[in-house]
DNA sequence: ACTTAACCGAGACGGTACGTCTCGTCTTTAG
DNA sequence: CTAAAGACGAGACGTACCGTCTCGGTTAAGT
């Protein structure tokens, strides 16, 4: 069957892997990034420290593993039939994800740590951020297919101007990012 | 006389203070935030750990002290006679400050750490970020005074949309922020 | 079939058994008792750890297995025709065995470990030491049979006084135990 | 005053030092040499591990420090006025020390460990064993001064033959070493 | 000049977490 | 059923820093 064993030569324990990811997630949300230690993850997951070090070089690698699926699940924009609706819904989702979800807390911690760690920054950008950029393009690509937008529009630039402000407020100024704010962003963009 | 003493009851040693600030700055640039320890700052500054703990509660407080003057010196937008010129110059200055200067490295470290430390985030926002927001308004305020912009324009919103993209690329995506990019931002804004 | 198999339903592998004993012996002599780990024995013997744990409870049990035959082979006193000759030869053999042979190194390690481990001490005494005590009596028993000694002599006490000094110098003081020393012991004993 | 401080540049804490030595002693007696870990010593002594590593390279160094004074205190032979009395008393004291005292347990552990560690063996011999050899000579030196023995007697050899048997029984055979046994040793020696 | 008291350097202290090592157990696949 | 292989939970290792403390020396204002 392949996954519910205690450890053998033919592969790692899926049980231990998920226990570690969940423990890391919980501890980050409860005690913050500084309170997230390998020691505590191991204790909470009921796992030996060596098992963690065997599979993850550091605690940020655990967070990277834990974050990936959440992002794909929560940040894929739905097709609501129009660019206006798609963008309003997606920006509101992004704002809520970043400010209120556990996965958003993991994301903020990773971006924070990336400021101190260029290797992490590279990994984060080449994996999760690149993945998300593809998802952020979807509303625009669908709008072009519908004929709502000309086909030569610079999608990445447009998406970035909308997404950037949300991240800036979340990561830097700490100002709230509510529905009226994200709707205003869309209004401005569509009025252009 | 007030600054070159080894210690007495009537005040702290200015020599020790500046040695600590410079040591912290150097260590941050050389070894990154994780390599910045009180122990190493003390050793590099030729100062006792207790002297550091007497005056700064933590290493981020040292960085906050070290950062303040740099920001005011480097990020005040000059008056070049027109909104167009002022914005082009200011955004280019901000981009260069954030990506290439030592003070920019300190800023990025502080914003990074603020993701893990809400108290630091509050302090950063209520002091340095609030100060900078005032400076970022200057081009717009001068434009209103010149009659280039109507007096009811939402300055903070306008400034934020321009500044946010630069921060997003610096802090999150790591994309370069060169002169042509900042100029395009200004073009877009003025065309609106 | 009997001995050269890789693991099957017909019993343990003699090949694995001897490989373990030899690997343990080698590692003890090369790297000392602390450098003798089950992990290293398994690696050197080309055997799985579990195979060792299946057959030996601990590393000292491996050493006990390895030691037994050596002692019987090397420490049985020959009959040279007289008490004087027998004792001189035997004590010299014992001294040389303890100080220079690989088996002597194993013995010293076992006695050393027995100081920390009462269970090992008991096992060592009830097996190997009891066996050796029988062998150490032989010169005296032959001397009584020859009429060189009265039949009521306390053989164990006599043997112990001679053997003890050799062990003391080997285990405690580290002083050399050369032929002149053992001969002097015999001289003293016979002059009594 | 010089000894009751918490730690500063002018010297180590005597309080921490004695707490470590006592903890090590207690743990050895309670849990044996294998159960004696730096971790547990630190915990029991209420001391940081680093404090132990600062002053002692290993746990055997702690035991060496702890053992020294005990040996000098307990194993110095008193002058009872005659060789016969001095020897009987001293051998009985040695036997009792080795078999029943806490310090004797430390000694046995050190000698046991010395079988695995030549560096420890050298240190033990050049310090504590050399010191004890001096004390073991005292009854004989006093006997020569009294005229009980000729001045050319080989004191070290004589002392060793008596002492060795006790150590052999304690360290190797585990046989009891009671007063009648040590008295018989003295009888034999004096009858010679 | 002398006292006084805060500040200075140095560094030992009790701790926490690190990342590594080895232990003895458990689980799988092959013969 | 035994074997090899190796992942597992457990826990001690020795190191690095943390933030606190105590010490003796330095310095300058107030006697």
TrEMBL record, chains A, B, C, D:
Q: Which UniProt keywords apply?
A: DNA-binding, Transcription, Transcription regulation
Q: Which residue ranges does the Swiss-Prot or TrEMBL entry mark as DNA-binding?
A: 37-56
Ion transport listed as a keyword: no
* SUPFAM superfamilies xref list: Homeodomain-like, Tetracyclin repressor-like, C-terminal domain
Q: Give yes or no: UniProt keyword Repeat.
A: no
Task: Give all residue intervals belonging to the HTH tetR-type domain.
Answer: 14-74
Positions in coiled-coil regions: none
- This one is known as TetR/AcrR family transcriptional regulator
